[in-house]
What does this fold into?
Amino acid sequence: MLAVVAVAAVLALVGGGFAYATLHKTVTLSIDGKAQEVGTFDGTVADVLSSQGIHLTSHDAVAPSPQTSIENGSRIAVRFGRELTLRVDGQAKKYWVTATTVDQALDQIGARYRGADLSTSRGSYIGRDGLRLAVATPKKVTLVTAGKPRHVVTTGVTVGQALADLNIGVDRNDEVTPLTGTRISDGSRIVLVRIDRKMRVGEVSIPFDTVTRQSATMYSDQSRTARAGRDGLARIRVRVTYADGKVRHRVQLSKVVLRAPVSEVQYVGTKAPPTATAPSVGGSTVWDSIAQCESGGDWSINTGNGYYGGLQFLQSTWLSFGGGVYASLPSDASREEQIAIAEKVRDAAGGYSPWPACAASLGLL
It folds into this structure.
């Protein structure tokens, strides 16, 4: 009897060991690329994940599918979803990825952004809490400096960032169009004008004015200068604004008079000039008679002796009495123009004495 019991006990032990060996499995569980071996009696992928405390969301990935039956040596891979907030040139968009590095994530969403500047390296790890990634793409823009355009490539998102990316410093006086905070894109045009302001101190003249006074003792066609004018002198302080090296405008900030100007004083006559009443001599005017005596009545004569015209003027006399308004030489003026100047010479002399010989022969002296 004891022998029978012993045999039954041995059979029970052997049978239990066989069942354990048959139901127990060893599987490889990979979490975000990190593998470990797990012993389990579970029958499906979902059961294994549940027993390991792994709960999937719609953003996670598992292979094979949760319903798949497992066996000894099965491999289960789990990739947890990560929220990737991508801000490209200032425009934000969200993605869910299972990649664990920036480079893999960009591959996963199909956006490599070659040549772009990233806010973190492409090999940076993306944790379960996700990642915010800024991307600045290269842009071809036209940059105008000193009035000359050139084509450049920048990853700047705004005008200010583009200038900084190109190592172009800008101070508060410089003019940038469009404004530095303006977003740019392919084909944008940036114009930079260097503004410089400098103070200048110098001396300038102050023009004198003319004071006109009337004189009843002078004829209306006469005038004389009683006092000559003189310019004044002032020291001025000026702010000069240069745009790309060229003067844009000047602003006078102060003025100190060093010497006041002196006004010119002129007197002009108000008396009506006398009306010439030339006496008739031999059936002609006195001037025709004098001309007949002086030049044979030839009003355009120029004999080369220094006297010109019918009344034989010296050129200096002709010009000093205003003959230059008619002609530089008396012989080039008309008879009437020569008589008009002769009357001024007569009035200044108080008679016909400037033509002494002819005036005497005609009884005018």
About this structure: The mean pLDDT is 87.
